[in-house]
Every structure is written in C-alpha cells, then in structure tokens.
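Hello,

I think I submitted the magnesium ion job twice by accident. Can you confirm which output corresponds to this input? Input:
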Amino acid sequence: MRVLFDVDGTLIESGSASDNHPLPKTAIVELLKALAAGGHRIAVASSAGREVAAAVCVVLGIRGLVRIVDKEPDNYDLVIDDSAEGGQGLGRQLLQVRSGMLGAEVDDPWP
Ligand SMILES: [Mg+2]
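Support: Only one job matched these inputs. Its output is below.
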C-alpha cells in the first residue's frame, strides 16, 4: 500500500512541533514503523510544510523510512490524519486518529 501520514495531531501531539520538542504519539509512530517494515510505501506530509515534516521525522527516528511530500491530492491507498477535512481528497481511504493529548495508560504500547 501507499500510505500517507499527517504530522501535527497524528504522529505528534497537536501543536508540539513549534517548540522543537515534538511529543510523539507512540502508537501511531509504531504503526508507521510496522507498515514500513512490511514493505509498504510511507509518505509524510504536514500542512506546515516539508521542512517541518522532515524535522519531526528526524526527531522521531523515522526519517529513513519515509518520503516527505506536500499535502496535495494523490491516490494513496490509505491516509492517516487527525483531521477528516485535512485528509479529504488525498487518497482512497481515510483513517482519522483522535486529536489531543492521550493519557499514558491509553498510549503506552503493550509490554
Ligand atoms: Mg493534523
């Protein structure tokens, strides 16, 4: 599959890219890694631009797994975004993830 991940509110907590200490949404980052390990083609895009998307991916340790692209209509098989509006028209299927800070008991991966 070709999969597009949004940055703000999806790979990181909403608004946390602006202070150079983006707070990862661990479950979504792990999902990205698992899809990449499975041979899927992963793209990352931010409405804030390619530089922001690339910088966040470096911090998250996933820069080598993804292509940085503009957020524009394409035929991705799956778009993962915290905004239904932001993800509209970018691909065939949209998976909307929850926005906002998650509690540690919710976001912690299985031991
Ligand atoms: Mg977003």
